[in-house]
Design goal:
- The structure is a single chain.
- By secondary structure, the protein is of the alpha+beta class.
- It has one domain: q2cbj1_9rhob like domain (Jelly Rolls).
- Helix content is 33%, strand content 24%.
- Strands 1-2-10-7-12-5-4-3 form an 8-stranded antiparallel beta sheet. It has a 4-stranded antiparallel beta sheet with strand order 6-11-8-9, with no helix packed on it.
- α1 packs parallel to α5.
- The longest helix has 23 residues.
- The chain is globular.
- The two termini are 35 Å apart.
Length: 267
């Protein structure tokens, strides 16, 4: 694959189908780790050539927009946002240069595909059933993939993720193993209420993790230190998509983010 060539629709569809098959295989063969809670750990989630193309197609800092929620509390004194994002939906990435757009359209479409979602549901079935019961495989899940960039000063304290979320996935995008110690931390919860570090993900190229969100999925991230230029990753969140309220909320969130993105692009 020419890493930076703009692809015709037929080429894009073929490349996306191949990428879906690879990701599904990576999910099916992912390591299952039981402690401190049930989660998956990935190696080689993307094909090597695709991963190289993704690194080459990483957008400029000015192409991202601020991440809201908990991230706002980490803004620096000069107003610098320590976490920014680009939603990997076609309507968001359309302002990128054509070559970058082809890469991220392929990745976004693959991550939003039914085969990938169903692979996550199968592999995370024990944890999903613990939360949703025996019909967990029937619970609707709405995928939102975002390309995120953290800079020095970003951190997030221990939390379990909101109940609106069903599955959390993070796929790391470093160029090398220079800073493997800045990955996500998983926590134990002890009877006295303390939450010591139990396991830390390795921030290594083409790796990542996934877990079903529940009351025990406590995780955090230490402050990104000054020696790190950027911590790039993809956050793929599957929001619970069951019942009119959640269905409308999920689609309204996508529409609202699109409008904010368009306003930003025009100003």
């Amino acid at each position: 694959m020419d890493q930076m060539a703009e692809q015709r629709p037929s080429e894009l569809a073929e490349a996306t189908a191949a990428l879906i098959n690879h990701i599904v295989g990576a999910i099916e063969t992912a390591a299952v780790v039981m402690e401190p809670f049930y989660h998956l750990e990935f190696v080689g989630i993307f094909p090597a050539l695709v991963y190289a193309a993704m690194l080459q197609a990483l957008p400029r800092n000015t192409d991202y927009r601020p991440m809201h929620g908990r991230s706002k509390g980490n803004d620096l004194a000069d107003g610098t946002h320590t976490r920014v994002k680009i939603d990997l939906f076609p309507e968001y990435i359309r302002h990128l240069p054509p070559q970058q757009r082809s890469v991220w359209r392929m990745v976004g479409d693959a991550l939003c595909s039914e085969p990938v979602k169903n692979a996550f549901r199968r592999k995370l079935a024990p944890a999903l059933e613990k939360r949703f019961g025996p019909d967990a495989q029937e619970v609707g899940m709405f995928p939102i993939p975002i390309l995120t960039r953290d800079v020095p000063g970003y951190k997030i304290t221990p939390h379990t993720d909101t109940h609106w979320k069903g599955i959390t996935v993070q796929l790391y995008l470093p160029r090398d193993e220079a800073h493997t110690d800045i990955g996500t931390i998983f926590h134990d919860v002890l009877p006295d209420g303390s939450m010591p570090k139990a396991r830390q993900m390795k921030f290594a190229p083409n790796s990542g993790y996934a877990f079903a969100v529940d009351k025990l999925s406590w995780h955090s991230a230490d402050t990104v230190p000054a020696g790190v230029e950027t911590r790039d990753s993809i956050l793929l969140t599957y929001f619970v998509d069951q019942g009119p309220l959640k269905v409308l909320r999920n689609r309204g969130k996508r529409l609202g983010n699109f409008l904010l993105n368009e306003i930003r692009a025009r100003t």
